[in-house]
Amino acid sequence: MNVSHTFRALRHRNYRLFFVGQTISLIGTWLQQVAMSWLAYQLTDSALFLGVVAFFSSISFLLFGTFAGVFADRVPRQKALLLTQGMMLLQAALLAVLVATDRIEVWHLIVLSLWLGTVSAFDMPLRQSMYVELVPDRADLSNAIALNSFIVNIARVVGPALAGFLMAVTGEAVCFALNALSFAAVIVAIWRIDWPKVTRPPGDDAWWSSWKEGARFALGAGPVRTALILVAVLAWTISPYPTLMPVFAKYVYAGGPETLGWLLSAAGAGALCSAVYLANRKTVRGIGTAIALAAITAGVAMAAFGFLRYLPLALVLMMFIGGGTVLAAAGTNIVMQSLVEDRMRGRIAGFYTMAFVGTAPLGHLAAGVLAREFGAPITFVANGILCVLVALWFWQQLPKLRTALQPEYERLGMTSDES
User: Fold this and answer.
1) How far apart are alpha carbons 230 and 98 in whole angstroms?
2) Is the dihedral of CA 104, 109, 114, 119 positive or negative?
3) Other C-beta atoms lying within 10 Å of the C-beta of residue 286
4) How far is CA 292 from the centre of its chain?
5) pTM beyond 0.90, yes or no
6) pLDDT per position as a tens digit, 226-248
């Protein structure tokens, strides 16, 4: 592995600032996510309620994600990001105080989850569309996106394991407090970035017209639509695994928060391997095939996990679940960013966010209902099989994807046969 090539986007100062701040913040985010899941299960002892909390934390992505994309294309990103990050800091601090003072109740978890999800629905398209401003060399754009996936998955390895340790030694409140502090790192980074002057659409342009333009590109173009369907199915079928993992940790493997942390960290380790693979890719050549194989792998591993009762093997399968999901989702994002014009990046990021994150709450809720009726293992098996079937359909659509990427191949001096 050529380290300088893998991390080539870091040669840009603005991206380095964002990379460091975002890494710290994402570890804090995973501390909170694991602690929230464990706290919700401890308060209710209900798999269904785990799905309810996850539903409220993500439903805003489905409701507002595409309109948030229009917002991202029309506002100064620095000011907007400072606002969203500050609001998320406040949410984490309030959660820490409620838990530390033993005043936390079930309805608090629902309201605070909805708060975080709503703010995140506007924050994510802003961050997904900002790379072109942080990395002026277009040749480094795909690497910047891959490195973002890399730090997300560094956090997925470190965060859950650290959360399990902290909850066992201290309690959930410390995880929430550390998450609040972690937002300071990304806020400082955003403040110090030298934001280039970017021409935004005139203020009198109709929001609805802007939205329709983005929708025509996202839903009208066959390859983009196909990619969005795949990530939506991944979100529905595979994304619920962290929601139901407390059930496996407590009842299947007779463990506590440490077991939960190890299971989620194993998924993070697999995801990290996929992120490194994507960062080492020099072009988009062959990425469609990699996406299809990754989705199939995630589905098969999830179905197999439902049958297991042996923790070491379960950890291996969790690596395949995490790795396959991230390679498919991040690879799809790279493809979409290669197809879209700069002026529409926020809107397309909004549709991607709606498909991947916005569909997740429906999957979480459905998984919670299925787990209550049939058990968490059966839920994993059913979701895994569905994921594999849709991934095989995506494989059949790859010739159309290669045709759509032809301009990118020509810019790189390649032919579509090399994809």
Assistant:
1) 39
2) positive
3) 12
4) 18
5) no
6) 888 898 898 888 877 777 788 78
